Each structure stands twice: as structure tokens, then as C-alpha cells.
Amino acid sequence: MSETLILFDIDGTLLRTNGAGIGGFVEAGVRVFGKDFSLDGLLVGGQLDPLILDRALGQLGMAPDEVNLRAFRHHYHECLGRLFKSGERESIAMPGVQKLLDQLEALAHVDIGLLTGNLAETGQLKLGAAGIKIEQFCVHAWGDDGETRDHLPPVALERWLEHRGIERDFEHTVIIGDTIYDVQCAKANGCRVLAVCTGVDDRETLEAAGADWVVDDLSDTEAVLEWLLQS
Ligand SMILES: [Mg+2]
Q: What band does 231 get if pLDDT is binned at 50, 70 and 90?
């Protein structure tokens, strides 16, 4: 049986943070770049965090550099952590997610990983706050691992090769996400894609983008496993 790699998006797919992600991002931006920092009018769903920051700074006629980027990441992590810890915002796993992850983890010929626009430290914070263990994912492609989301699947497969010695096999890689950008990055790399309606885009939009299968959520574990494991 072929080895299968299943790559999960985080926001809108594994969990929702009820505004903590954007709230923490903006608060950090205001701290580092000033009170005019805003994400108003910017596309956020399915985007890579460094690109969102680039665009927000572009609106202010500013650009990120090594120093302010480091400061931003520090403050974003701090603000997000505080929002969760204070109970002001909650990170909640989507229906069926933990059961699906546990069942996939138990299968010898399947590995699960992350392919997300989040930065590593804040992505891990969101997962931890939702009770999802980072250790379940054997490879990670984060928001600063490529220039666009389409660049992330090859990064994940390269890490799979390093970690498990399994040759890059896009055909046996499945991407699960909630936006047309998840669908697009899968199709651009010849991966299968399961789209979920728990996040930004609705069923019609995801189907029109070319998702191989669209589900309302991941709660029908049996049906989702069957589809994921067909080769
Ligand atoms: Mg998402």
C-alpha cells in the first residue's frame, strides 16, 4: 500500500479562534508599526501571515525588515497567548477533527502534517489552545516557508523525505483546507484536495475552485477516512 501524507490547514479547518488570530495580529501590528496599522479591507483567509503583514504595511507605505519582523512576531505571540489565557477568546477544534486525527495517526501507512499560512510559534499556540497536539503532525509547512501557498506542498514533501525517508509523491498527498487558496495550492502541485465548509468559503465556491470533494465538516469520520485512503 502506498504511503499517504495528509496535510491540514489550521484556521477554518482544524479550528477557529473566534477572532483571536486577527485580534492578536492587529494588536501586535499597532504596537510595532503604530496606531494606523489595520487589516481592514485586506484578504486574510487562506493567506500567508508574512504576506498579510506585507500588505498591511504597504498600506502605510512601510515594509517589513528583519528587526521589525522579529518584533512583530514576538508581540503577535504575546498578544495571542494573552487572548487565550485570559479567556477573552477561545480556540476551538472543528467538529470531528480530534477523532479524525487520532484515527489517522493510528494508521501505519499514513502520516499527517500541517500546511498553513500561520507562523510556527503562533500556529502552535492556536493548536495547543484548542487541545490539538502538535506532536501528531510529522511535517509542517508554515507561512514563512514559501513566497506563496502554492510553494508550500513541495516544502512539506521535502520534509517528509527528510523525516521519514519517503520519496516525494504529490499524487498520494492530500490537502485539507477551507479556502480556494488551499484548493489552488493542491491543484498547482498535483495533490488531491478535500475542502471543508467550516471556514471562509462556501460549498459552491470550493466546488467551482475544483476541490475533489467538499464536506460540510469533518465529523463523518468513516466517510472522510474512506475518501482520504482511496488511492
Ligand atoms: Mg484556513
A: low
For residue 227, the CA-to-ligand 1 centroid distance in Å is 21
pLDDT, one tens digit per residue, over 151-200 is 999 999 999 999 989 888 999 999 999 999 999 999 999 999 999 999 99
- With CA atoms as reference, report the closest residue to 138 among 231, 10, 6, 42: 6
Amino acid at 142: W
Rounded to 10 deg, the angle between the 66-85 and 20-33 helix axes is 140
Ligand 1 center to residue 1 CA distance, Å? 30
**Rg of the chain taking only CA atoms, in angstroms:** 17
Cα(105) to centroid(ligand 1), Å: 21
The continuous run of DSSP H or E covering 71 comes out as helix 66-85
Unique residue bearing C-alpha cell 523525516: 163
> How many angstroms does the Cα of residue 166 sit away from the middle of ligand 1?
27
pLDDT tens-digit readout, 76-122? 999 999 999 999 999 999 999 999 999 999 999 999 999 999 999 99
What CATH number does the domain located at 4-17+92-229 have? Answer: 3.40.50.1000
Q: What residue spans define the domains of the chain?
A: 4-17+92-229, 20-85
